[in-house]
Design brief:
There is one protein chain. By secondary structure, the chain is mainly alpha-helical. It is 75% helix and 0% strand. The protein is built from ten helices and no strands. It has helices at residues 7-34, 42-63, 68-72, 74-95, 99-104, 106-124, 139-145, 151-173, 179-204, 215-226. 30% of the residues are buried.
Length: 227
């Protein structure tokens, strides 16, 4: 891969390749969003981006025989999962505006929602929660102790929760009784409640007065807890 052929050299190349891939696909994703995923190849392009990100992870594990974080670093790993989850969120969000399409593509829609939630859950758990034995009540420390390291983590909570809501809502709306769908809906209902409760706790706590809003979160939470 590189002139010196060392493992460290290979890791550096893979790390640089991953960053280049994220830069390139960011541009591609922007075009898809601008067009509201309206092109005939939109779904293929979405899947292509996801596969490209997954191949990086597989290469680290299967070829380099190493942990992904050890190769490309925890920040890039976190970003990969975020980008996968956020891309599926944006795709599904656009699709929910076309009720005929999602009803005619139920299996596909549900699979995208499940994958998106899973990617965002992994992203949110990539870094270890900071535990400090102290009486310090500092807002930043509260965020870190709950695994919130950036605004992106807060967005991930809401994106994941909204996809959980869509899964549960449309399962019931379409009276879908397929065992796998129903079981997943039950699991995602619980996941959605957990994500939303954490979001609300952070907004009303350490992030209070900093521009975050709980209105949509409470709306989703009321639905999921009443279902």
């Amino acid at each position: 891969m590189v002139e010196d052929g060392t493992v460290d050299g290979q890791k550096l190349v893979l790390k640089e390749y991953t960053q280049a891939l994220m830069d390139l696909t960011f541009f591609q994703e922007g075009l898809l969003v601008d067009k509201e995923f309206s092109g005939e190849t939109a779904e293929t392009e979405v899947l292509g981006i996801l596969d490209a990100f997954i191949e990086v992870e597989q290469f680290c594990i299967e070829i380099m025989n190493s942990d992904v974080e050890e190769i490309i670093g925890i920040e890039q790993v976190e970003c990969l999962h975020w980008r996968k989850g956020a891309l599926l969120y944006m795709y599904c969000n656009i699709r929910t505006q076309d009720k005929t399409w999602i009803k005619n593509h139920q299996d596909e829609f549900f699979k995208f929602l499940s994958r998106g939630v899973e990617y965002l859950k992994i992203m949110l758990s990539t870094r270890h929660v900071i535990t400090v034995d102290t009486k310090d009540d500092h807002d930043v420390l509260k965020l870190l102790q709950h695994g919130i390291f950036s605004d992106t983590h807060m967005l991930a909570l809401m994106y994941g929760a909204e996809m959980c809501y869509w899964y549960v809502y449309y399962t019931k709306m379409w009276n879908n009784t397929e065992d796998t769908i129903v079981q997943n809906a039950s699991t995602l209902q619980h996941t959605g409640v957990e994500l939303l409760q954490l979001y609300v706790k952070m907004v009303e706590g350490p992030l209070n007065g900093l521009g975050w809003n709980c209105d949509r979160a409470r709306e989703l939470l009321d639905y999921l807890m009443a279902t």
